[in-house]
Design a protein that fits this description.
4-stranded antiparallel β-sheet; 3-stranded antiparallel β-sheet
Length: 104
């Protein structure tokens, strides 16, 4: 496999939200770092939106986002600023999980 192909394969394993820039996106970045301590969190700032991603899996917990925002937060309010996402998504009342399952 060439270096370019392996780099692309790595990129294809990245999961996470793509969010409109603002306070919620900044809180989600910090929550991603706190809720996924064993993962490197990558942030691509595209000015109008932020791509927040990690390899293979990312979990965001409501309590952590609330702490970072400094106010109450409902997980379905995430959808307001969620432009898109990479990977698959599993939503619950208290958390959202972005993940990638490779099927061959």
């Amino acid at each position: 496999m060439s270096a370019a192909a392996s780099g692309q394969a790595y990129h294809n394993n990245m999961v996470g939200p793509i969010m409109r820039a603002g306070d919620l996106a900044l809180a989600v970045i910090e929550a991603a770092r706190i809720d996924n301590p064993d993962k490197e969190i990558f942030v691509d700032d595209k000015r109008a939106y932020l791509r927040i991603h990690a390899e293979q899996e990312m979990i965001l917990r409501r309590e952590t986002i609330e702490e970072e925002l400094g106010r109450p937060f409902r997980m379905n309010d995430l959808e307001v600023d969620l432009s898109s996402f990479a990977g698959q998504i599993e939503s619950q009342d208290n958390a959202v999980r972005f993940y990638f399952v490779k099927k061959i």
